[in-house]
Design brief:
Blueprint: H1 5-17, E1 22-23, H2 48-51, E2 61-69, E3 85-94, H3 99-113, E4 121-126, H4 136-144, E5 152-155, H5 157-160, E6 161-162, E7 169-180, E8 202-215, E9 221-234, H6 235-243, H7 251-263, H8 272-294, H9 303-321, H10 329-340, H11 346-349, H12 351-385, E10 390-391, H13 393-403, H14 407-416, E11 420-421, H15 423-450
Parallel strand pairs: 1-2, 4-5, 10-11
Antiparallel strand pairs: 2-3, 3-9, 4-7, 6-7, 7-8, 8-9
Helix pairs in contact: 3-4, 7-10, 8-9, 8-10, 8-12, 9-12, 10-12, 13-15
């Protein structure tokens, strides 16, 4: 039986509420009080003061569905799994219960509430090193819960140690749960295939982090005064696993992709793989920008605003590649607002502003895009005529300075067409321009002083 995102979210929160957890609303994507992060990238991030010992007004057991944004893998978006925005289902113990309850409840929800087969679940645990011992406690709990040794994999710190988000803070070993999709082993992995490998057979469905340690500024590890548990489960990935689908085949994207199909019917002009990738970029980036705009982040040239602008412009570039010459992103956003308005009412409250900002930015960039693409294509012809594959820093600088084409966008277009870009010489050209600007300013000031 297929399950919807609303059903999955509600099941999770009801399960934790029955076990004494207070349900928190999602925090803003703007990481409040954290100068080290532009955005909320994990459910535990807004809870940092309480993980360090400050009492939470709602108690020591908490749960929520948290909207998150990460752009580390933005260039991978368009495949079956990568995305920029996502929801993290999370529950926490602030110095209350420990590994036994955390692992048991996680497994119970997966198997008893959602119907996942225990026989297809494997787990990883921390193998131990000089900072902390092997997590024998977690191993013993898993054994008691019916997970045999052959499906328990001790791994090193790179894979089974979490945190901290910043240079210092709470951290500790984790235990991840993986589900066997039943896909055949990729020959390159063969018998060495295990949870966490890249063959595609195993899908990570949850992670229990045991924050019993704190990392100092010098990298040292010490015991944390308050032991906490942080459990995170990716809603999109879990929803796709339960439905035997990709993330883009779930109800979260259904209405947006349907609307995009109405606005941009397939023409057959592009290879199917290319067409699919472009459509996924459009809906992923529009969804992320919609959530950012709802939280007050407008397109701009610095920090959070730049990320918002970049998302919108990458979506617009993909739309242009599909033959779109008029703004469409607001219509895609309208579909997402309809899908999410029950879980995230701020989208409905800010709908008018979201649609207006998207349309304004898309219209502005479409004018830039048309001019910049013509110049890029002219440069491509010149480079290939010379038998070369490298766009120079001067080329990048001219595209940016004259046509408003960001170097990141030029680099992405070049990569898609089998070209390279010389970013080092671009930086040098940019420094030369800044030096000229400063000299011109000084000369102008001297001339003004001399005329007085």
């Amino acid at each position: 039986m297929l399950i919807t995102s609303d059903q999955l979210r509600a099941s999770f929160l009801a399960f934790l509420r029955e076990r004494g957890h207070a349900i928190l609303p999602s925090a803003s994507l703007v990481a409040a009080g954290d100068s080290t992060a532009l955005f909320t990238i994990a459910g535990m991030q807004p809870l940092m003061p309480y993980l360090l010992g400050e009492p939470h007004p709602l108690g020591r057991r908490l749960a929520n569905a948290q909207k998150c944004l990460r752009t580390d893998d933005i260039e991978e978006v368009g495949d079956a799994s990568h995305g920029t925005s996502f929801e993290m289902l999370g529950f926490w113990s602030l110095g209350d219960y420990w590994k036994q309850d955390s692992l048991r409840w996680t497994l119970e929800w997966f198997t008893e509430a959602l119907g996942l087969e225990k026989e297809r679940i494997a787990v990883t645990v921390f193998a131990g090193d000089d900072d902390a011992p092997r997590d024998d406690e977690a191993i013993a709990v898993w054994r008691a819960l019916g997970i045999p040794d052959k499906r328990i994999f001790p791994l090193g710190k790179e894979e089974n140690w979490w945190g901290p988000i910043a240079a210092t803070g709470p951290c500790g070993p984790d235990s991840e749960l993986f589900y066997d999709t039943g896909l055949p082993h990729t020959p390159a992995f063969g018998p060495d295939c295990r949870p966490g490998c890249d063959c595609g057979r195993w899908v990570e469905i949850g992670n229990n982090v045991f924050m019993g340690y704190r990392q100092g500024a010098d990298g040292s590890i010490s015991q944390l005064a308050q032991r906490n548990v942080d459990v995170g489960l990716g809603l999109e990935r879990l929803l796709a696993t339960l439905n035997g689908a990709t993330v883009y085949e779930t109800d979260l994207y259904a209405e947006a992709l349907r609307r995009l199909g109405e606005l941009v019917p397939g023409s057959g002009a592009l290879p199917p793989e290319r067409d699919t990738r472009l459509r996924r970029i459009i809906v992923d980036h529009t969804r992320a920008a919609t959530f950012l705009l709802a939280d007050g982040v407008a397109p701009g040239n610095v920090e959070r605003s730049y990320v918002c602008r970049r998302l919108i412009r990458r979506a617009a570039v993909s739309a242009h590649a599909l033959g779109v010459r008029a703004p469409i992103l607001a219509e895609i956003a309208r579909a997402f607002i309809a899908t999410y308005r029950g879980a995230y009412p701020e989208l409905a409250r800010e709908e008018e502003r979201i649609l207006s900002e998207l349309t304004r930015e898309e219209e502005r960039f479409q004018r830039t895009l048309a001019r910049g693409l013509r110049e890029f294509e002219r440069l491509e012809v010149e480079v290939r005529a010379k038998g070369a594959t490298m766009l120079s820093g001067e080329d990048l600088f001219r595209l940016a300075d004259t046509f408003g084409f960001p170097p990141t966008l030029t680099a992405e277009l070049a990569r898609e067409r089998g070209l390279e870009v010389d970013l080092d010489s671009y930086e040098a050209a940019l420094r030369r321009q800044r030096d000229r600007s400063r000299r011109d300013t000084v000369r102008r000031l001297h001339a003004e002083l001399a005329s007085k």
